[in-house]
Automatic annotation (TrEMBL):
S-adenosyl-L-methionine binds at E93, D120, D140. It comes from Gymnopus androsaceus JB14. It holds the Pfam family NSUN5_fdxn-like. The active site is at C199 (nucleophile). This is S-adenosyl-L-methionine-dependent methyltransferase. The lineage of its organism: Eukaryota, Fungi, Dikarya, Basidiomycota, Agaricomycotina.
């Protein structure tokens, strides 16, 4: 859900861009609400709603999708909703504890079509027949979260500056991991669309990664297109950055 400063606490409205997104005043609390506890309502800022909407997998029984990095499951449940609980979104999570909470969330939200898998996406074999029809992949990998705005940001600025040099090394490692994830996603034989999203505002984890991915041998061999009216079934249709 997106916060709407202009609305009163009793009002809400429909978002103009994202179907099923309702806008509430920032001070409206959902923590005690039954709809929130039972996951009928999922709290999510508008920016986080774009990846699933842009990926827009078909709502059909044959539709197979991968959410490579799933917990807590907000984007997975969004994908499941967009697919009308049809087809199969495979939802990967490598961390066991986080996987358990993903399972709980998906079951609460009644995402019956999702197949959660406790595995590292990087070791999944793209040639496994189970994934042979995967056309859509969502990649929302771990990142620094630098794009997440909090009201306390001004307090941490000076601390952040001191830690910058340490962070640089960490950022390079994260960036290398994120690029590896995209390149791995490109290996799935039927993939046509990969959505890569992060909560980071650093170009090293956004634009630079996407550019490096587009320049990779795999992307070049796919004759990557941005939006073709008649996409070739073997070419990757688009790599978006959200
Ligand atoms: C940014 S969070 C994903 C948020 C999620 N997409 C959502 O909208 O709720 C990244 C998650 O991916 C998991 N992860 C990181 N690397 C992974 C990998 N190689 N394979 C599977 N899961 C991974 C992390 O443990 C973490 O839970």
């Amino acid at each position: 859900m997106q916060f709407n400063i202009s609305a009163s606490k009793k009002e809400f409205s429909k978002d103009e861009d994202i179907p099923a997104l309702l806008l509430f005043h920032p001070q409206v609390s959902f923590q005690d609400k039954e709809a929130y506890k039972t996951a009928k309502v999922i709290l999510q800022d508008k920016a986080s709603c774009f990846p699933a909407v842009v990926l827009n997998p078909p709502a059909s029984a044959e539709s197979t999708v991968i959410d490579a990095t799933s917990t807590p499951g907000n984007k997975t449940s969004h994908l499941s909703t967009l697919m009308c609980n049809l087809g199969t979104p495979f939802a990967f999570e490598r961390d066991h504890k986080r996987f358990l909470s993903l399972q709980t969330m998906l079951s609460k939200a009644k995402c019956q079509n999702v197949e959660p898998i406790n595995a590292d996406f990087l070791v999944v074999n793209p040639m496994d027949s189970k994934y042979s029809k995967v056309m859509h992949i969502l990649l929302d990998p771990s990142c620094s979260g630098s794009g997440i705005v909090t009201h306390l940001d001004y307090l941490v600025k000076s601390v952040e500056q001191e830690a910058n040099s340490v962070q640089e090394d960490q950022q390079n490692k994260l960036a290398a991991f994120q690029l590896m994830m995209i390149k791995h996603a490109m290996k799935f034989p039927s993939v046509q669309q990969i959505i890569y999203s992060t909560c980071s505002i650093h170009a090293i984890k956004d634009k630079h990664i996407v550019c490096a991915a587009l320049e990779s041998a795999k992307a070049l061999s796919c004759k990557l297109q941005t939006h073709s009216p008649k996409p070739s079934p073997t070419a990757m249709e688009a790599l978006w950055i959200c």
